[in-house]
From TrEMBL:
<keyword id="KW-0521">NADP</keyword>
<feature type="region of interest" description="Disordered">
    <location>
        <begin position="269"/>
        <end position="303"/>
    </location>
</feature>
<dbReference type="InterPro" id="IPR020904">
    <property type="entry name" value="Sc_DH/Rdtase_CS"/>
</dbReference>
<dbReference type="InterPro" id="IPR002347">
    <property type="entry name" value="SDR_fam"/>
</dbReference>
<dbReference type="GO" id="GO:0006066">
    <property type="term" value="P:alcohol metabolic process"/>
</dbReference>
<dbReference type="GO" id="GO:0016616">
    <property type="term" value="F:oxidoreductase activity, acting on the CH-OH group of donors, NAD or NADP as acceptor"/>
</dbReference>
<dbReference type="Pfam" id="PF00106">
    <property type="entry name" value="adh_short"/>
</dbReference>
<protein>
    <submittedName>
        <fullName>Putative oxidoreductase SadH</fullName>
        <ecNumber>1.-.-.-</ecNumber>
    </submittedName>
</protein>
<dbReference type="GO" id="GO:0042445">
    <property type="term" value="P:hormone metabolic process"/>
</dbReference>
<comment type="similarity">
    <text>Belongs to the short-chain dehydrogenases/reductases (SDR) family.</text>
</comment>
<dbReference type="InterPro" id="IPR036291">
    <property type="entry name" value="NAD(P)-bd_dom_sf"/>
</dbReference>
<keyword id="KW-0472">Membrane</keyword>
<dbReference type="GO" id="GO:0016020">
    <property type="term" value="C:membrane"/>
</dbReference>
<keyword id="KW-0560">Oxidoreductase</keyword>
<dbReference type="GO" id="GO:0006720">
    <property type="term" value="P:isoprenoid metabolic process"/>
</dbReference>
<keyword id="KW-0812">Transmembrane</keyword>
<keyword id="KW-1133">Transmembrane helix</keyword>
Length: 303
């Protein structure tokens, strides 16, 4: 999709970090931006920022893990700005820590937002992309979609799924005669948005800036690039995995400090509460608050 002027671009998680930067940069190309996020305050702040700068933007609160919320927003978007041309599945969460130290609710939230989210949102909006003369779907995966990431096992696997989803969807669209809809899977290493605060970045892999990454993503859409692996070392992961003996590849990942990068992760919200619909919460009597239970208790600010 060479020309982005007047294209309608919907971004999930567009209220903060990479999503907000993508909103700004697509707007600067003359696109109409539909900002969506779980956090309404962030939606309003991004829309205000864009409109004050003279761009065209609307915003909606949308929880990517809730099909009802997504369907409702899709109907509103069609009424207000029409069918979208570009969908960016960007919303994501991470809960770092040793697998057993992280409450299961957080692991489940990771899959709900990072893996089910792109499927739910794409299911709702793909007909829009197909009905237009050209369309594009960008799925923000991660370098962790191709490599082991201790202390973020469910995050990494949630992104492996996003990569598999992107590859399969692209081929399915092509087979079904919808080759005018491109799919790009984005696999960046760490980006300086706060989501991975405290991590020790791997050797030769400095923290990416949201600005530079957003720029690369826009170029990928223009060129209909299937994958964006960045920075350069990430491009070598598939080759290394495919050709090296497992023990050598493991040694290399250790030496590059990929394997240990998450040990110092200490990000705190701005990750919003991922709400569990009331109907799905079983009404059980409150458990007795023993000292052990208190230690294992789920942080109330998380799902
Ligand atoms: N930051 C990194 O180092 C990095 C690296 C690789 C990939 N990524 C991926 O890039 C994407 C953007 O990450 P970021 O660093 O900008 O994170 P961020 O935390 O700055 O922004 C994520 C946004 O998603 C929103 N969100 C969370 N749950 C949601 C839900 N259920 N529905 C709708 N919106 C929701 C949040 O409110 C937030 O505004 C994520 O998918 C992330 O996994 C990030």
């Amino acid at each position: 999709m060479r020309d982005l002027t007047a294209k309608r671009v919907l971004i999930t998680g567009g209220g903060h970090g990479l999503g907000r930067e993508l909103a700004l940069q697509f707007a600067m190309q003359g696109a109409t931006i539909i900002v969506t996020d779980l956090d309404l305050v962030r939606v309003e702040s991004t829309v205000e920022y864009l409109t004050n700068a003279g761009h065209t933007a609307v915003g909606y609160r949308m929880d990517v893990s809730d099909p009802v919320s997504v369907k409702a927003v899709r109907n509103q978007v069609r009424e207000s700005v029409g069918s979208i041309d570009i969908l960016i599945n960007n919303a994501g969460v991470v809960f770092g820590g040793a697998f057993m130290d992280v409450p299961i609710e957080k692991h489940m939230a990771t899959y709900r937002v990072n893996t089910l989210g792109p499927a739910i949102v794409t299911h709702a909006f793909l007909p829009d992309l197909v009905e237009n003369s050209e369309g594009h779907c960008v799925n923000i995966a991660s370098a962790a979609a191709m490599i082991a990431l201790p202390n973020a096992a469910t995050y990494a696997s949630s992104k492996w799924a996003v990569l598999g989803f992107s590859e399969s969807l692209r081929e399915e669209l092509r087979l079904n005669g919808h080759g005018h809809v491109g799919v790009t899977a984005v696999c960046p290493s760490y980006v300086g948005t706060g989501m991975f605060a405290g991590v020790c970045t791997p050797r030769f892999t400095p923290m990416l800036t949201p600005k530079k990454l957003a720029n690369q993503i826009i170029n990928s859409v223009r060129k209909n690039q299937e994958q964006l692996l960045t920075p350069w070392l990430v491009k070598l992961i598939p080759l290394g995995r495919g050709t090296m003996h497992r023990s050598l590849f493991r040694w290399l990942c250790n030496w590059l400090r990929v394997t240990t990068s998450m040990i110092t992760w200490n990000s705190k919200p701005p990750q919003p509460t991922v709400e569990v619909p009331a109907a799905r919460v079983p009404t059980l009597p409150p458990p007795k608050r023993t000292r052990k239970a208190a230690a294992m208790a789920v942080d109330e600010s998380y799902p």
